[in-house]
Amino acid sequence: MTKKEKIQVHRMDDWFSGVYIKPFGYEKSSVPDYEISQPHRHDFYYCVLSDKGRMELEVDFEKVEITDQTLFLSYPGQIHRIISAKMERGWFLAFDPAILDEQLKNILDQCLSQIILVPLSPEQSAGFCSYINHLFVVYNDGAQMFRKTIIQAMVTGLIYQLASVYHSLEQFNLIRHPARSIEITKSFKQILRNNFKSIKKPSEYAAKMNMTVSHLNDTVKSVTGFSVTYFVQQELMREAQRLLFYSHLSVKEIADDLGFEDDKYFNRLFSKAIGISPGAFRKQGETSVHL
């Protein structure tokens, strides 16, 4: 793979209503396709509904396997590529974050997992497929009155349903924790997701949440098993790996981009968190084979 100065970003600019929808195996489309086997980022959410089939992806250096009756959601900014896909029935849906209401954006930002992968019952899968099929009919009907508004409203409704299924699973796994602790942890994760480059100290996150740093740290650790510092470093190192692997930015430029005034400190932190230096990680990536 030939690296570029910046990671390739696919954008929603040419897609009607900030939405792109396509069933697997559907050949004819009035909207542009793009190269999906090469590592890239989106400035939009992208969702895969697999009713029958299998897909293997790499999302931020983690392998993700989508199987029968599974819903997957990728966040804007994540680096991913499709390794293999043998999909018989299912849907691909991409949508602009701008079409979501504030409540839904907050729900998605507060998900504790970086990768949203939801197993569905046969009934749930059939229901989602039926809903998306109806959406696809409207999407392709140029004569439909209020088409743009209907499409955006239907996508919002679909993602609320996805969030509901995901959060039901999440709540079940967190049932032993007090509701207030879960709420604090989710709020922290949302603030972190949007501010990790500019805010690095646990005390600053605690101040934004109007609580003591010890209370925030104890709460997050009780729910997740990890400290606030751990999550801050993970978010920073995830972005550092993306830039090292898929761009020609120097280590110093990457440190600057992530808000580090001292690139030597960034080097030490990366080496401690990832186990090898930034330079070694980049060299490792240059020798990797990509589809």
Helix/strand layout:
Blueprint: E1 9-10, E2 19-23, E3 41-42, E4 45-59, E5 62-66, E6 70-74, E7 80-95, H1 102-109, E8 116-119, H2 122-139, H3 147-173, H4 179-195, H5 202-208, H6 213-224, H7 228-246, H8 251-257, H9 263-274, H10 278-286
Parallel strand pairs: 1-3
Antiparallel strand pairs: 2-7, 4-5, 4-6, 4-7, 6-8
Structural description of this entry:
The structure is a single chain. This protein has helices at 102-109, 122-139, 147-173, 179-195, 202-208, 213-224, 228-246, 251-257, 263-274, 278-286, and strands spanning 9-10, 19-23, 41-42, 45-59, 62-66, 70-74, 80-95, 116-119. The protein is of the alpha+beta class and 291 residues long. The protein folds into two domains: 9-173, Sandwich (Jelly Rolls), CATH 2.60.120; 179-286, Arc Repressor Mutant, subunit A (Orthogonal Bundle), CATH 1.10.10. The strands form two sheets. Strands 2, 4, 5, 6, 7 and 8 form a six-stranded antiparallel sheet that branches. A hairpin with a 2-residue loop joins strand 4 and strand 5 (62-66). The protein starts with 8 loop residues before the first strand and ends in a 5-residue tail after the last helix. It comes from Flavobacterium rivuli WB 3.3-2 = DSM 21788. GO terms for molecular function: DNA-binding transcription factor activity; sequence-specific DNA binding.
